[in-house]
User: Fold these one by one.
Assistant:
Number 1:
Amino acid sequence: MKGPGGLKPIRGLRLNRVRTEAQILFTDGSFLYLRADPYGRYALGPGAERVAGFALHRDGVDLLLVDGTRLALRLRWGRLRAYFS
């Protein structure tokens, strides 16, 4: 079963302390690595070809997928919340 925009089902989200890197963890054990800093902006891993753009925030990640789907992943009180449109 695929998630929004053809991505795999999501299990978790990890953000680094300065919010320049994020890992979106999938249920099969793989992850999508996102990095945005003054030196570069890229996505690596399974599903990276489906990511048209992304923004890293203090509490999560916004993804824009190539099919036009927007996915917002937020960490609130240690719980992952997903919003998509």
Number 2:
Amino acid sequence: MRTIVRNRFLAAVLGLIPAAFSTAQAAPASKVAAAETKVPAGPSAQIEARRAAMLAALAPALHEPLLAVVADAAERLRANDLAVAQGTAEPLDVSRVVRAALFDADFAGISKRKRAVVDAIIDLVVLQLGATLHIQLRDAIGRHQAVRAVRACGTEVACLDGIIPTATMTAEHISSIRKSFAGKATELASQDRLGKLEIQGLMTRYNEAETLQSSVLKKEADIENAVISKI
């Protein structure tokens, strides 16, 4: 069972499942007030096509290590954003974090590769990171909406039962928040604040990734695909 779930997740993140960004169907708006933050549009069709082409050129055996690097880069960005918010660090740019994650993992022996190969690998990770950040941003917004909705209900069971899932705020988000924080005003207030900070950080990072992705589109696709296929 774990293998099936894991393979479905791998396929979704790599873009092999068409509805990777929005598997939930739209539902009626909740009767309870929730945060109004909207999920930004996902990567453009051009960016997705470029990402799919580069992934197709990459050896299948390297797909999972690639996702590990992307996950590491996303976590480094999250940790940096938290440290910046606490005043203990300066913000790191996305390209620098991507490069560090790749070289620390020595993905595909990148430390011994020529510059053209290194640049192509970095571009591929940037494209994949943008997709991953969008998924994380969508989830963070949904969770925050659930926090706001549960917080608005307080301890009123009828109100809590009346919270209706939406395409972004899923039933899983609502259930998780109710189970962990329903009736805990102080903790919900803390989750509300943390959620806002998380969304702000992810939004900023996603915008940075979009800028980098646009730069990738300016490069010759055939040349980069050929480089990637030889790794």
